[in-house]
Amino acid sequence: GEAARMMVAKARAAPPRSGKWRRTRSSTPNKWDRGHGAARAGRSARSSSRFAPTKAAGSKGNASTSVEDGGVNVPLAMELWKRANAVCFDVDCTVCKDDSLDALAGFLGKKNEVEAWTTRAMDGSVGLERSLEERMKILSPSFDEVERYLATGGRAEQRLNPGIVDLVGALRDRGVAVYLISGGFREMALPVAKTLGLPPENVYANRMHFSVCDETGLPRNFAGFDRTEPTCRQGGKPEVIRDLRLRHPYETIVMVGDGITDLEAAEVEGGADAFIGYGGTVARPEVMKGADWFVSDFFSLRAELRRYKVAFLGSGAWACAAAKLACENASGDDLFDPEVSMWVHEEVHEGRPLHETINETHENPKYAKGCFMGENLEACSSAEDAVREANLVVFCVPHEFAHGLCVQLQGRVWPDAIAVSLTKGMRIRPEGPQLISEMIRKKLGLADCSVLMGANIAGEIAMGQLSEGTIGYRILENAKVFERLFQTPSFIVTLVQDVEGAEMSGTLKNVVAIAAGLSDGLGYGSNTKAAILRQGLSEMRSFSKKMFPTVRDETFLESCGVADLVASCYGGRNRRVAEAFAREGGQRAMEEVAEDLLGGQKLQGALTAGEVHSVLRQNGWEDEFPLFDTVYRIAVTREIPVDAVTGFMSSRQSGR
Hints:
Layout: H1 2-13, H2 38-42, E1 54-55, H3 74-82, E2 86-89, H4 91-95, H5 100-108, H6 111-122, H7 128-139, H8 143-151, H9 156-159, H10 164-173, E3 177-185, H11 186-195, E4 203-206, E5 208-212, E6 219-225, H12 236-247, E7 253-257, H13 260-264, E8 274-278, E9 282-283, H14 285-290, E10 293-295, H15 298-306, E11 310-313, H16 317-330, E12 340-343, E13 348-349, E14 352-353, H17 354-361, E15 377-380, H18 383-387, E16 392-395, H19 399-409, E17 418-421, E18 426-427, E19 434-435, H20 436-444, E20 449-453, H21 458-462, E21 467-472, H22 476-486, E22 491-496, H23 499-521, H24 526-547, H25 559-571, H26 573-583, H27 590-598, H28 605-619, H29 626-636, H30 649-653
Parallel strand pairs: 2-3, 2-7, 3-4, 7-8, 8-10, 11-12, 11-16, 12-15, 16-17, 17-20, 21-22
Antiparallel strand pairs: 1-9, 5-6, 13-14, 18-19, 20-21
Helix pairs in contact: 5-6, 6-7, 10-15, 19-20, 23-24, 23-25, 23-26, 23-28, 23-29, 24-25, 25-26, 26-27, 28-29
């Protein structure tokens, strides 16, 4: 099709081994361009000459070899690999360190004779069917000999190449169907499949026949093999793949193997869409020459599955500090694509678009001056462009803009992307409040959205001062990815399985910080502020548990809880604006004061106080949360004077 031809053209135009490849979208959002047969169509003509195999350096499938990775269509093959619906592995010398018949021959003392025929089959100098026939004539194993071999030297876990168990597990975790297609025998392949967690029906291999003892009824001597199995002859592996396509709606199938018969699987119509040659056991020149992508170990394949392309949505002070951490880690960790994108709300700074300045200096001079984020950061003025290739999205926008941004990006974010919210706040709806992480997950159709909260004063993080953060998660695997993205020697991350508790803590502490700032502006001392912090933490916990009964008490002892509360009440911008508001006696609206002090940054505390109060009023909880109620009435409605900030203590005196 046209999409396949476009992908082939791009692959031909790309550098031979670029290490990076831009995904292309079809006209329908969240759909890949169909690449069926694309690698096969773009594969260069192969020489008809045959070469002797080359043993990979490093013994018995060691991941460290002298064979260099390469291939004729590497960028395209990488993309097909990452979006494959099914992957078919050869068994002998690919999944396993050895050829099963060669190993059986060694067990029976017939190794040299059998290996010679194996080599001739794998380099293509003789047909598979003849090689199989000649080897089995030499071996002629009894049923008991096969059983003894499998129970001793042929145990599957001892034969597997390094990295294959993890690779197959990663594929299955992604929902990719995994098959074993072997020119060897089912008797040898089934234990391998079991070790890899694959069902017997996912194994395609030849079957041995045995004569049956008349007296015992048990299998005895070798009596040939089933010649109706496609894997016993040349062209059998693509035949198996064609059959898989008939029975399953697989759009993209990739074949991985070390031999000519594996290479065949991607050279015929209806076969595999790409062939990945494996040289960890034996590097065969013909396979190296013809493979779309040739690898010397399974770790290369695993790394491509794990790589995350990171996009930041937001470019304020906290977003820039977090992006600095992410850019540092992405540039040195194979788990991530080194390039990090950032959406910058379009505005002009000193006569030029802000995103252009950021791309030139890798700093945000308006909101995070002096915070060098890294040369691997690419800023763009379009949110759609920022997430176009991303499968890890970081939300860090003022919470009042989060809903509109999510609506704008519906159908634009990959459905298998993982997300983390750094936004502190909640959305108030007629049907009840909604956490920002929940809104992101639902609006964008994502399976999961974690949160990163904590004592995160942006300027201090940007300077590399010791700081902490808490990742609230539902899916541990995703949380560990975020931990690797953000943790540095100076930014320590802890994980808690409590998204609601972590997010509510990060949201509510801004209300308490307003109270702390009012106290500072009135000239009150440490005792008063301590009382505000104590009452604030108590109300944060109580309100969170009323909203989400699953919230854990211990979450409030993490960085997202008490530590964030302390940092915000002593050094945050909500405290600073509230202090100035109090010094003026509350004569101007807090939003006006914030405009003077924050240079365009948003004040979250007063907005959150209004949102929290709407929940209190709706449920008749005002008396249960005297500090939250007091902050609302001072900072939002200005119906009571600033010095009433300590009025919450009357509830303790009256026993409420």
